[in-house]
Design brief:
Helix content: 10-25%
Radius of gyration: 22 Å
Largest sheet: 13 strands, mixed
Number of strands: 21
Shape: globular
């Protein structure tokens, strides 16, 4: 993707586009994580005609690539600075993606009642196809079906194609994003809120398998560099507790072949107690354990990669966040999901860094015989020598990003 392929627009509180920032004026950093909240930082001269618009509460950015919206979201903090080198001053705006609404809002036991102090239902129990259940929780809590007090202004529900396995959930005040991430982990789906036209849209989507067409490798000039981080699983045995007291309480033990293989690799049995007293349904208890296993029950392998600027496999056109791609590491070809991306755009051009997480097919012993680096899995941990200047390793722009 080239700088010319990027469009950066400023919006107001009513989601109306009020102007675009020219490429020669851009000083922008964007980071996004798959099924999480993205972040952005933009620096403008204090006298820029759009600077005052971004200072207004509820304002935000829409960042669009060559084929789709990359990220949209509200401004969080404008910060004015003046130096002897810049006597006119500049304003640094930081913001997050529109998916932050899923962190801001909870899933009520009775979403038809906006008063949390008078909830007459213990849990909001729903079952069905995973994608449909995800849409139902969003619509009921912040979407068109929600009470006016809790409804996200203008939020539109995207297409529901009924994908994923049959699941059952019974939340009681978890963050909505946390609930969705649990379902998405077992369903193999992506989700986000993004502005389309003049409205925010909640979208779910399938992971696109591009492994046959996108093969990233330093040797074929599609990667400028890469780093690999390998770490032990977070859990290998889940003990899920349902309802009842003491010896009468329900317990389900959950593990997976991947988790047990990781036990053998690392010589560690890692147990976790999961409190699910909200349900007495054995299937739902088992599902809670499977969700944890899908997120943490495996040897974690994270690849930090920097595509070359002249690669024929172009980010934003041929592949993007959430896609499944092939990457070559130590002469081993792996397939995995693009779980994070960071972009930096300024007058010098556009640079992209990616995180490719949990690759499949890696010979762990072969990988461990090489020198690997134990780095954080978050995309903010990409360092200067990997990204070739994409992001300042001392910057704190992304330090507030949480993990659902």
């Amino acid at each position: 993707m080239r700088l010319q392929d990027l469009t950066v627009e400023v919006r107001n509180k009513a989601f109306q586009r009020v102007g675009a920032i020219r490429h020669e004026e851009l000083n922008l950093e964007v980071t996004d994580d798959f099924n999480n909240v993205g972040a952005w930082k933009l620096r403008l001269a204090a006298e820029h005609p759009l600077a005052n618009e971004l200072r207004q509460p509820g304002s935000g950015l829409i960042v669009t690539g060559p084929t789709d919206v990359i990220l949209s979201g509200p401004t969080i903090t404008p910060e004015f600075a003046i130096t002897p080198e810049d006597p006119g001053g500049s304003i640094s705006f930081t913001g997050v993606s529109d998916s932050v609404t899923l962190v801001d809002m909870l899933s009520f036991p009775d979403p038809t009642n906006p008063d949390p102090t008078t909830q007459e239902l213990a849990h909001d129990i729903r079952s069905g196809v995973a994608e449909t259940v995800m849409h139902a929780y969003v619509s009921a809590n912040i979407g068109p079906s929600a009470p006016a007090e809790r409804r996200r202004a203008g939020l539109v529900m995207g297409e529901d194609l009924g994908r994923g396995p049959i699941i059952k959930k019974s939340p009681r005040f978890p963050a909505l994003g946390e609930l969705l991430a649990e379902i998405a982990a077992v369903a193999g789906l992506g989700f986000r809120i993004v502005q389309r036209g003049s409205v925010p849209v909640f979208e779910t989507y399938d992971i696109t398998d591009r492994t046959a067409t996108v093969r990233l490798d330093v040797r074929n000039n599609t990667l400028a560099g890469q780093r690999v981080a390998i770490s032990a699983p977070g859990v290998t045995r889940a003990i899920v507790a349902g309802q009842g007291d003491l010896t009468e309480r329900q317990f389900v033990a959950v593990s997976t072949p991947e988790a047990q293989a990781a036990e053998a690799q690392w010589g560690r049995r890692i147990e976790r107690f999961i409190d699910q007293r909200n349900t007495n349904d054995w299937d739902e208890l088992t599902q809670a354990g499977e969700e944890v296993m899908a997120e943490e029950g495996y040897t974690s392998i994270s690849v930090q990669a920097v595509p070359t600027e002249d690669s024929l496999m172009r980010f934003g056109i041929d592949w993007g966040l959430g896609d499944k791609v092939s990457v070559v590491i130590e002469n081993q070809e792996l397939s995995s999901t693009v779980t994070g991306v960071v972009l930096k755009a300024d007058p010098d051009g556009l640079r992209v860094g990616t995180v490719i997480g949990q690759p499949t097919g890696l010979d762990l012993n072969a990988a461990l015989s090489k020198r690997v680096t134990n780095t954080e899995r978050r995309i903010s941990a990409l360092e200067r020598n990997v990204l070739d200047g994409v992001i300042d390793p001392d910057a704190q722009v992304f330090s507030f990003m949480g993990v659902w």
